Amino acid sequence: MGAYLGIDVGSVTTKFAVLNKNDELITHNYLLTQGKPIIMVQQGLKEIQQQLPQNMEISGVATTGSARYLAGVIVGADLVKNEITSHAVAALQYIPDVQTIIEIGGQDSKIIIVRDGVVTDFGMNTVCAAGTGSFLDHQALRLNMSIEEFSRRALESQNPVRIAGRCTVFAESDMVHKQQMGHRIEDILYGLCQALVRNYLNNVGLGKEIKSPIVFQGGVAFNQAIVKAIQEELGTEVIVPPHHEVMGAIGAALLVHEDMVNDHNKSQFKGFGVSEVKYHTSSFECQACPNLCEIAQLSNNGQVLARWGGRCDLWERSPSS
Cβ distance 221 to 198 under 8 Å? Predict the structure, then answer.
């Protein structure tokens, strides 16, 4: 039986999804990247192999996410796609009439506007943490509680406190001030959830026409307090799809399935054995122009497999130079 593997390598998490020929999810995996994308891709492949039926063969592989080119070289990807396309395709698979996709991850977030099944606009946040999951993670850590407890207790809020400041630093300062004033911790926690949603809508969603049906995906969608805060802010229902945390990987798998069927190509997938390969990473400063970009490179047994990190595509275009 043929199957299609999607891999989404982000800065915080690495996700895997395997679909069968009917585009049904067979298995999936969700790992913390921990600043080690190569090791996590290898670990994820090893775990996915153990979860698959023995008679199942990978007929196509696609990568997406911030480290998609790196992951693509390691696994022998047939397709490398950006996160916007991957998330939109996955959302449309589960909610065909979706018009707005809210995706909030650990260190970045995006909004995708869809009209009649086509992406017409999008926005991304890759700089400010105030509209991402790391904003809540940091506050949960400061309060010595898990993010699960954070979510549960925030939902118990009766009179949420408004946390001022559109910046993580100022929000934390205001949160400490509210604690010192004696506000209930549950009210402060839900106030932080509301602040994240406001920051997201005022930054990523600024100027976007947010229309229903609205789909909320990404790891932060596990947090029911954030789901509630979004619904209250927008005044409408927000749909959290099944497997929302691996939607980027599902979208990549859907795309490579379509690509392989249309072109009748044989997959370039290097096999699950790549999880045992020892890779070496290094970097150097490009002297080709005044930008002096730091170029990272991946090699195996002295052979350079890929280079990336420049502001232009000089090194991506010529990995053997």
Answer: no
Per-residue model confidence as pLDDT tens digits over 46-98: 999 999 988 889 999 999 998 898 899 999 999 999 999 999 999 999 999 99
How far is the C-alpha of 288 from the C-alpha of 314, rounded, in Å?
Answer: 9
Q: Are 295 and 309 in contact (CB under 8 A)?
A: yes
For domain 96-240, give the fold. Answer: Nucleotidyltransferase; domain 5 (3.30.420)
Distance of CA 27 to the CA centre of its chain: 18
- For domain 2-86+248-275, the question of CATH label 3.30.420.40 is answered with yes
Instruction: Name the amino acid, one letter, at 5.
Output: L
Residues 6 or more apart in contact with residue 15 via CB below 8 angstroms: 7, 8, 9, 28, 29, 30, 31, 65, 245, 246, 248, 249
Q: Where are the beta strands (DSSP E) in 65-127?
A: 79-80, 100-104, 109-115, 118-125
